[in-house]
Write a structure and sequence with these properties.
By secondary structure, this protein is mainly β. Helix content is 13%, strand content 42%. It has 2 domains: 76 residues, Beta-1,3-xylanase, CBM31 domain (Immunoglobulin-like), CATH 2.60.40; 95 residues, Immunoglobulin-like, CATH 2.60.40.
Length: 233
């Protein structure tokens, strides 16, 4: 009698899904731990945020700035200064403020959240014209004083250019070339005081004398008594 032997193999299937205990551990312990610690980290380390928009200028005398608070956390302190002096802010929105600036300088912005995180940053304003015009290439020949006036921002107010003689008489330029900025006056042998303003009202006053204009006696620099006023009219 033939005996046959059969071999059978049992296949084992491994469950790739986590066990209920592991799922419970992840859902009720690990995940809450991560979420809570992330929230704590966010609350502790979040710094203040802001946005400053420096607008253009039409007259080179003033510009408006808009300051918007972008912080998520409540703020404990906010100060904005211009060259160490507080500026006036007008509220124009829920978290938006506006101020008018009338000179160049640096905005100092300090903000502090209730979590203790703070920032100190600076925004620079340099679009305003608060410098007087300049004079260069001046010379006296055949009784005429001529020079070039320069202003790179608001431009020269050519109607303001005049001179005063040593006797106090005011005289107008003999020639004004707006294309080149070249100005000519009849020279007073005893000296001539010249006044120039730019379109922002900044004034420059200087006095010329024949001795200072003589190449043999002058180094070509402007007279020491030249006084740029720098004041806005």
């Amino acid at each position: 009698m033939d005996r046959r032997t059969y071999q059978s193999s049992r296949q084992y299937k491994y469950n790739s899904f986590p066990s209920p205990d592991l799922i419970q551990l992840l859902l009720f312990f690990v995940l809450p731990f991560i979420v809570i610690n992330s929230i704590i980290f966010f609350l502790v380390t979040t710094k203040p945020k802001y946005e400053v928009v420096i607008e253009g200028t039409n007259d080179y005398r003033t510009t408006d700035i808009t300051f918007t608070i972008k912080s998520v956390m409540p703020l404990k302190e906010v100060t904005i200064k211009m060259d160490s002096e507080p500026i006036d802010l007008v509220k124009v929105g829920r978290r938006t403020y506006r101020s008018t600036i009338n000179h160049n300088g640096s905005l100092e912005i300090y903000m502090k959240n209730f979590n203790g995180m703070a920032l100190l940053e600076y925004e620079h304003i340099d679009i305003l014209d608060d410098e007087p015009p300049a004079i260069e290439d001046y010379v006296s020949e055949d009784g005429l004083l001529s020079f070039t006036v320069i202003d790179t921002q608001s431009g020269i107010d050519y109607s303001s250019i005049l001179a005063q003689t040593s006797s106090g008489q005011q005289i107008q330029p003999l020639n004004v070339d707006k294309a080149t900025g070249r100005i000519s006056f009849q020279m007073d042998p005893n000296g001539l005081s010249v006044t120039i303003r730019d379109m922002s009202g900044n004034e420059y006053v200087t006095t010329f004398s024949l001795n200072e204009l003589d190449p043999a006696e002058s180094d070509g620099s402007l007279p020491e008594e030249s006084q740029p006023s720098g004041e806005i009219a």
